[in-house]
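Recall that a protein's primary structure is simply its ordered list of amino acids. Everything else, from secondary elements to tertiary packing, is in principle encoded there. The following example makes that idea concrete.
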Amino acid sequence: MQPHDPQDPVAHPNGHPHHDHERTDVPVRLLGKFLLGMGITGVLIVVGLGLFWRYLGSRLAPHPAGTTFAGARELPPGPRLQVAPRLDLQTYQQQEQQRLNTYGWSDRDAGVAHIPIGRAMELTLQRGLPARPRPPEPKSSAPETLATPPPAQPEPGARPDPTAQRSQSPHAQHKH
């Protein structure tokens, strides 16, 4: 057992450690005062809002009993919502299926007709898709060279020169 050091704030006179907190980290009293002030402020806000609500309630006229829909219901002006949307959707889908699977006129005056989708796909496979004609190639008097000479190969063990690679590139831009 070690002797008691009166200068050691953690040591206890009988040798047991004294449980305490670091007093320089958190000012406990100041923190407690802050939390108490916040609690009092919260209570004052709730009481003040309650009094304000009561004041407004006494100044405003009370609402009449009943709802706004208590009277006869009038229909809104058109266009109105669908009455039976599922039935409308089924009717629409049937009309579209009939158009996709039958022959008929799209515009009789212009002579435009529609054919069943299956037949249209067969004709597209037989005839192919329409393509635009290619524009004619411009003719030049100088013969074109398609191949470019390969770049010179460096000697084994030699370091490549980065400026030489740039100048030999066919895509290098020339400044005039």
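Residues 28 and 34 are 10 Å apart (CA to CA). The chain has a mean pLDDT of 77.
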